[in-house]
Amino acid sequence: MAIMTTTSSHTFLPVLERIAEEIGHTPGRGRPADYIPALAARDPRSFGMAVAELDGTVYGVGEWREPFSTQSITKVFTLALDLAREGDELWEHVGREPSGNPFNSLVQLEYENGIPRNPFINAGALVVTDRLQTRTEDAAGQLLDFLRAESGNPALDFDHEVAASETAFGDRNAALAHFMASYGNIDNDVTVLLDQYFRQCSVAASCADLALATGFLARHGIRADGTRLLTRSQAKQVNAVMLTCGTYDAAGDFAYRVGLPGKSGVGGGIIAVVPGRCTLCVWSPGLDERGNSVAGVAALDRFTTLTGLSVF
Ligand code: DON
Asked: Which positions make up the signal peptide (predicted)?
């Protein structure tokens, strides 16, 4: 597998090389998401993995520079952008407990009066995007600006084909948004909110871009340019919710195997944070039945096993 680097200080490169070789020999990679037809065409054998150090050094193996559909990974960034603006008031509108249910589940919402369990299931992410939209009038644009700035990649953009594909098959997200609106937990017109949310999910970015963009969570809230986005305490909160809720009904198994705050997306990407040390992003489009990348989880599992780095 080709190995490319961008700078000379690459502490974990030998570990990444070993993981890429092991993954290359592993059969069974799951299946790409097909409920969004534009995602179904990706090759499940694609694999890339990048590490970003706190100073912005980034390196990787495999297809670490290949853009893929970020999908639910963006929920971390919209959460941080909204939390930075409104602080604890957000938690009156979305909880922070694991749901134990699939990412697109409707069942808890009625029992819990339209307050979603956490910001990483779709219902919770819709609430966060709605609140960011109210505060900025362009939630998806704010997200894109943030990702471009943190990754240093001004070419990052929405994938309009993916957004259109998801809009065409968006009945479940529309149901979630309307249901929460009936409880008064959505401010904006649902059509406007869904447009923002689907564009948010459609952003295409590489492992290198996303590992860099996640850096503020390893730097306790400090952005790439040295300014503060989140308080140290808020950065801890986001990392904690990633650990407990970032991989949906597989969050317990992810914490057990990987032991890091992580967030997956149905495009096959997963970001992970080693607070105070580095960030990671891995991508492989084949998913397990809970919507997490099979090779991605395996690669992060190997990373923490081989390096001994975890939050435990
Ligand atoms: O809302 C959806 O269905 C997608 N756009 C995002 C889902 C997603 O990535 C869930 N993650 N595993």
From this structure: none
- What Å distances lie between residue 107 and 103, 110, 125, 249, 250, CA to CA? 11, 7, 16, 14, 18
pTM over 0.90: yes
| Edge-to-edge strand list for the sheet holding 269-274 | 3-5, 58-62, 48-53, 278-283, 269-274, 262-264
Tell the CATH topology of 13-307.
Beta-lactamase (3.40.710)
Active-site annotation holds for 236: no
Establish whether 258 is a catalytic residue. Answer: no
Among the listed residues 236, 272, 267, the one whose alpha carbon sits nearest the alpha carbon of residue 69: 267
Query: Binding-site residues for substrate, please?
Result: 72, 122, 166, 173, 197, 248, 266
Q: Is the pLDDT of residue 128 over 50?
A: yes
